[in-house]
Design a protein that fits this description.
alpha/beta
Length: about 210
């Protein structure tokens, strides 16, 4: 009974991926804010693995699927209950490093398709005026092709990122914080309740 109770108490695992590799990027800060604001039923962990991925190439796909950063990222995505992706906007679209990661994750080899049916929330921040609207549209289109389940709302198009965060990098804009809180509540409600039969196994795999 004690083990079952502990399993039920485990929060759902959300893997957060920033589309920017810059250490102090607005999108990384946005994900850090999400992790700090997450409801008690969610655990949001930032993933830094996409920068280590090689460019997608079918010639090396078998080797990359057997081990290394590609397989490690696939396993983390598979073990997560949902993904939270924050993307900047580069030339009216998503960064190449983010598209490359999705290309690797979308492949069915060697054992499973890790994006099909995966719940994904999409957000974004930029210093410009348009708040990554075009980038998020492009990302949603790509995720549609992978058969992911993308949350339709509430949207977060954070513009003017220079003024949205304080000197310590924390999200300070009240409107942005409210929108982010609403999205996290919606994400929490969309996820099924933890299954005591497999929650502990998934959490252990996620943390491995």
């Amino acid at each position: 009974m004690i083990e079952t109770s502990q399993a039920q108490a485990r929060p759902r695992q959300i893997l957060a991926i920033a589309g920017s590799l810059r250490r102090d990027s607005f999108n990384r800060r946005l994900l850090q804010a999400a992790a700090a604001m997450a409801p008690s039923g969610l655990r949001i962990t930032l993933d830094d693995g996409i920068g280590a991925l090689p460019l997608f190439n079918e010639d090396i796909e078998l080797a990359m699927s057997a081990g290394g950063p590609v397989r490690a990222l696939r396993e983390r995505v598979a073990a997560a209950d949902a993904l939270l992706i924050a993307t900047p906007e580069y030339n009216q679209s998503i960064p190449g490093v983010l598209k490359n990661a999705i290309d690797w994750l979308s492949r069915p080899a060697p054992d499973r398709d890790v994006l099909s049916g995966k719940l994904v929330a999409v957000i974004g921040a930029t210093a410009g005026r348009w708040g990554t609207r075009l980038a998020q549209a492009a990302l949603r289109q790509t995720l549609f092709a992978t058969e992911s389940i993308v949350l339709p709302a509430p949207p977060i198009y954070l513009a003017g990122g220079d003024g949205a965060f304080d000197a310590q990098g924390a999200l300070a804009d009240p409107s942005a914080r409210e929108s982010l809180a609403q999205l996290l509540i919606f994400l929490d409600r969309r996820l099924p309740a933890p299954d005591p039969q497999n929650t502990a196994e998934l959490a252990d795999a996620y943390c491995a």
